[in-house]
Design goal:
two-stranded antiparallel ribbon; alpha/beta; five-stranded mixed sheet; Nucleotidyltransferase, domain 5; globular; 199 residues
Length: 199
């Protein structure tokens, strides 16, 4: 019996892609994930994520990336639902767990329009479900790699790409033109303050 978990990285970032990853594993290997130290990627250092990812090579991973031009076209919730639906179709698991991005009924209604595949979704699944946690680790590592690629292209370090990072905010203020292709235009600091107002 195959179990899948789906989670994302980069939902709240200002720079770079939204990465959605699906981890697929045989049910009999769930204990191996726990023994490898799999848990929510936010609770692990980059080094720990890399080590754990190597230990769980018995998992199969599917990943979708959405870049700023796509993210700016529709809502994040709708975009994530589309990504989740694609991954559900690709993984073909007997049971799939998803880290819920919005109220459950609203999410279910979105997903009904996109896929007939069955799933279970709940908040903080990356903390409660080891397969979702494995997906979160993979998603974070993939996003980290793309952030490093962007830094290589622009030629300077802008930090994590998240608005909570002073280095990121400073880079956006001082070198906006160079970072513009990688910045989400619809991103907001607060509901009443747009990115342009902030700059």
């Amino acid at each position: 019996m195959k179990i899948a978990g789906i989670d994302e990285a980069g939902r709240g970032s200002l720079i770079g892609p939204l990465v959605i990853s699906c981890a697929l594993v045989e049910k009999r290997h769930l204990q191996k994930l726990k023994e490898a130290g799999v848990k929510d990627s936010k609770k692990l250092s980059k080094e720990a994520r890399l080590k754990i990812r190597k230990k769980i090579s018995f998992c199969k991973f599917f990943t979708i990336l959405f870049f700023p031009p796509e993210i700016d076209k529709i809502s994040l919730n709708e975009l994530e639902a589309r990504g989740f639906a694609q991954l559900l179709e690709s993984a073909r698991a007997h049971l799939t767990y998803i880290d819920l991005p919005e109220p459950l009924e609203r999410f279910k209604n979105r997903m009904k329009k996109l896929t007939a595949k069955r799933f279970e979704a709940y908040h903080k699944a990356d903390e409660k479900n080891v397969v979702v946690a494995a997906a979160s680790i993979n998603a974070k590592l993939v996003r980290d790699r793309y952030i490093e690629k962007i830094k290589s292209k622009v030629g300077f370090d802008f930090g994590s790409g998240y608005p909570s990072d002073p280095k990121t905010i400073s880079a956006v203020r001082e070198r906006y033109r160079e970072l513009k292709p990688y910045i989400r235009k619809k991103w907001k600091i607060r509901p009443t303050r747009s990115l342009l107002e902030f700059l």
